[in-house]
Amino acid sequence: MLNQYQPIRVSDLKFQWNKKSNWQLNIAELQIQRGEHTFIKGASGSGKSTLLSLLAGLTTAQTGQIWINGKSLQTSARKRDRLRAQHIGFVFQQLNLIPYLSLRENILLPAYFAKERLQELVPRADMLLERLGLGDIDPDTQANKLSIGQQQRVAIARALITKPSILIADEPTSALDTDNRDGFLQLLIRESEACGTTIVFVSHDEGLRSHFPRTLRMQESAPGVMTCF
Ligand SMILES: Nc1ncnc2c1ncn2[C@@H]1O[C@H](COP(=O)(O)OP(=O)(O)OP(=O)(O)O)[C@@H](O)[C@H]1O
């Protein structure tokens, strides 16, 4: 059943990076339910990052609609920025921590963009640090003084600080060995579940698929036309 208030709904979407390109992404209908964990797989160049960028409102489609929690992304860039900051957390392969800021400052950055009251989120930042096994580290430590494993956990805390309803993860484990990869994913899923966050996780790595109840595949439906099932 269609429900426009689901975290993510896509309808009749058609997207090209430019008019002359013979590559196109077409999605007739896609819905992702509240709290659902979805794995998106597909060959290199199949459009996984393009789809994430459309869902985050960083790029807009020529045709069709995307709703995030019932709000259309067919709106001004300023409103899309606001929607993104309020509803979506991100984790990328490059963790994108700001090296000269402290752990706590890095974690609180999205709160600033979401215009949430920073002071009210400080206890949540500290709680996340504790839950992610970083409770023994002084939260004023600069991010570049942490090991990569610690930085990954800070990136999880940062993605979830505002309790976003959607978490978008783009290949966050591709630089990790198997043990680190599984540990990272378990923490990411556990903490997302604790705040009821819907996960959209892109990876080449088939080994991760079993952690996700739903898989979407980016596939060619006609020459040059990609879709996802
Ligand atoms: N900013 C851009 N401008 C123009 N074309 C782009 C841009 N980003 C991606 N493309 C093209 O769009 C298509 C899909 O690329 P995309 O990065 O979404 O694929 P992907 O499945 O995420 O690939 P990978 O797994 O290698 O990261 C490719 O043909 C790519 O060359």
UniProtKB/TrEMBL annotation:
<dbReference type="Pfam" id="PF00005">
    <property type="entry name" value="ABC_tran"/>
</dbReference>
<dbReference type="GO" id="GO:0022857">
    <property type="term" value="F:transmembrane transporter activity"/>
</dbReference>
<dbReference type="GO" id="GO:0005524">
    <property type="term" value="F:ATP binding"/>
</dbReference>
<feature type="domain" description="ABC transporter">
    <location>
        <begin position="8"/>
        <end position="229"/>
    </location>
</feature>
<dbReference type="InterPro" id="IPR015854">
    <property type="entry name" value="ABC_transpr_LolD-like"/>
</dbReference>
<dbReference type="InterPro" id="IPR027417">
    <property type="entry name" value="P-loop_NTPase"/>
</dbReference>
<dbReference type="InterPro" id="IPR003439">
    <property type="entry name" value="ABC_transporter-like_ATP-bd"/>
</dbReference>
<keyword id="KW-0067">ATP-binding</keyword>
<keyword id="KW-0813">Transport</keyword>
<protein>
    <recommendedName>
        <fullName>ABC transporter domain-containing protein</fullName>
    </recommendedName>
</protein>
<dbReference type="InterPro" id="IPR003593">
    <property type="entry name" value="AAA+_ATPase"/>
</dbReference>
<dbReference type="InterPro" id="IPR017911">
    <property type="entry name" value="MacB-like_ATP-bd"/>
</dbReference>
<keyword id="KW-0547">Nucleotide-binding</keyword>
<dbReference type="GO" id="GO:0005886">
    <property type="term" value="C:plasma membrane"/>
</dbReference>
<dbReference type="GO" id="GO:0016887">
    <property type="term" value="F:ATP hydrolysis activity"/>
</dbReference>
